[in-house]
Amino acid sequence: MVIDSRNKTLKFLLLATLVVLLIPAKAQAYIGPGAGFAFFGSMLTFFYATLSVVFYLLTWPVRYVIRAIRGRRAFVRSRVRKFVVLGLDGMDYALTKEFLEEGKLPNLARLRREGCFKQLATTIPPISPVAWSSFQTGSNPGKHNIFDFLTRDKKSYLPKLSSVDIRDTRRKISLGKYQLPLGKAGIHLLRKSKPFWTTLGEHGIFSSVIRVPITFPPEKFYGVQLSGMCVPDLRGTQGTFSFYTSRSDGSVEHTAGESFTVTRNKNTIKAELIGPPNPFRKDNSVLKCPFVVTIKDEDTVKLTISGNTYTVAKNAYTEWIKLGFKACPGVTVHGICKFLLLSTTPEFELYVTPVNIDPEKPAMPISHPGIFSTYLAKRQGPFATLGLLEDSWALNEKIISDESFIKQSTDADIERRKMFFDSLDKIKRGLCVCVFDGMDRIQHTFWRDIDKQHPANKQRRQNRPRNAIEEIYRRMDDLVGETLDRCKSNDTVLMIISDHGFNSFRCGVDLNRWLEENGYLKLKNDGRNKKNLAGVDWSKTRAFALGLAGIFLNLKGREAQGIVEPENEADSLRDEIITKLTGLTDSAKSNQPVVKQVYNALKVYRGPYKDEAPDLIIGYNKGYRASWETAIGQVTDKIYHENTKAWSGDHCIDRSLVPGVLFCNRRIETKEPRLMDIGPTILDMFGVAVPRYMDGRPLSVADAASRRTDQSE
């Protein structure tokens, strides 16, 4: 029998698990609500981990024989031994082409020369959770049920995360002011359909899937997986930072963070980190982790937290620091975070990243199998687990500097690189997928570097020229070069893909204000500027906007207080709004077109979930996007809002304006490849029939011997 790499990987995980169990253990980003928090309890988690190891050890011989037999059959029809997909979230086709022509991306130029470089058509809308869901399922959003970051609750109209639903266990034993949760909490992935790597596994082909968006909670399949975008922080949000200051006006509201005023007693400052709700308290009081800061000099402090002491230098992140939030005797919720000392004089200022789920002792499932994140942590040390880990809101609100934000992104790429290359080295046969999202975050926040007329530059103080976007493209080109060195075999296919491109975001459009001015939405007397659509008079509202791309009809029988008749009124109302919005222009900008195209969801989506989509999808023109207020259901007093935030670039516009990229080390003849074609292509290359539910079709990929040496398009 041949022992291939997947068996070696599983064995290695088992050994890592045994090591872990022998070690003593205590029992916003994008605007939007959190995923929620559901804590199993570290004692229960430890029990499940132990049980899993025992099960793996007892059943190993049987599973080994079965997989060895399956392994012989798995690659009989395969045209490839190994398929590697390196996802570079947000890599823009036009920018890439420009940098290639300037000779700044030598490794990607090599791929273009030896294989291909093409535009990759994205989804409607071209938003990361939608696009990556279509990538993994090979289907349009009508079949996978993800249409935006946010959707609305049909009963309450409140915004909620579109990809995951987290609910605490309902079974509890009451003990005075305490309670004892029974059973597991409910964590449900709302993305429907089936990822193509699950289909590969059903045919005996092993996959390693690292940080692909919309994979939380992780699903079971034949392989290993670390979840990506939409993994919450320990508090159950999409990223809540903490800012501590001795300024008397320090306790101010932040979009995705909290500010605390602290008192300086000589050189000592005492404060607390806020954790998740305590599952053992009926009042849901939050868990807290106290810490003490002792100022040593102007540039250095001593930090004491969770029984350990660290030296913290000014303007330099600490390493990941392990935290323990004590829920009750014997039960501790584990997290990790980084501290950044901003100032000691004349005022004390300290920034703390969102508290991430500790990958070594996760309070919620973030990997498959559950021990995989522990294995990675034991192998490379603590790493970020938050889905949107680069803290763009701390940058937007000028808590951290440009340099500090770039450092977050760079550190994340270094962590991801270790995981990716570990996967490449271990998986000799099968699929390796890894998504790096630093390029997306840097373009979001530094498009002002390349758009000199951007409104964000009015308040910018820049002492030296900088192009953070070019720098991240160069770093990713270096990553591609290292990947090519590990993919030299002729029976290995390497693809570099992105889910969408990028453009400038100069002006936000308050869609709800537009709907109000055109008679489709009515506010209560005191409803102006209330968040979460709380100011809307639903008895007189026919349409409303929420999230980054869509308009919903207030449909009778679907929304709790719907007034639009689905039979006689809805179709004509859709058409009417489409006609008016498509002709929308910005009079302050020489009547520049604001909207390129408006899509009727019933016509562009196919599948059982198309009725869950916003009724209309807005394809904005270059420079425009849904306003920050529209995203969270807040109606302002004007339609257009100049965007002066660091978040200066975006892709939430018409998909024709932001295509992604496709590089491959083999020639691809297909003229107009789509993101949803990648999964079916991989199945086809491994000799696995493409499921009928998939909308994507296999691309025409040349054999290894047909690599070309002439210049690609």
Give your account of this protein's structure.
It is a single chain. This protein has 713 residues and is an alpha+beta fold. It folds into three domains: 1-233 and 359-501 and 658-713, 3-Layer(aba) Sandwich (Alkaline Phosphatase, subunit A); 241-353, no CATH class; 505-657, no CATH class. 27% of the residues lie in helices and 24% in strands. The chain has 17 helices and 36 strands. It has an eight-stranded mixed β-sheet, sandwiched between helices. Strands 13-14-15-16-17 form a five-stranded antiparallel β-sheet, with no helix packed on it. Strands 12-11-21-20 form a four-stranded mixed β-sheet, with no helix packed on it. Helix 1 runs antiparallel to helix 2, helix 1 crosses helix 8 and helix 11 (438-446) packs antiparallel against helix 12.
Can I get a quick summary?
The protein is of the alpha+beta class.
What is the rounded distance between the termini? 45 Å
Largest sheet: 8 strands, mixed
If classified by CATH, what would the architecture of the largest domain be?
3-Layer(aba) Sandwich
Count of the separate structural domains: 3
Helix-strand category = alpha+beta
Given this structure, which CATH class of the largest domain is correct?
A: Alpha Beta
Overall residue-averaged pLDDT value: 90
Number of helices: 17
The best one-word shape is globular
Instruction: Report the uncertain regions.
Output: 1-6, 11-29, 41-46, 709-713
Q: What percent of the residues sit in helical stretches (DSSP H or I)?
A: 25-40%
Question: What share of the residues does DSSP label as strand, in percent?
Answer: 15-25%
- The CATH superfamily name of the largest domain is Alkaline Phosphatase, subunit A
- Here the CATH topology of the largest domain equals Alkaline Phosphatase, subunit A
What radius of gyration results from the CA coordinates? 26 Å
Say how many strands there are: 36
Major sheet strand order: 2-36-25-1-24-9-10-23
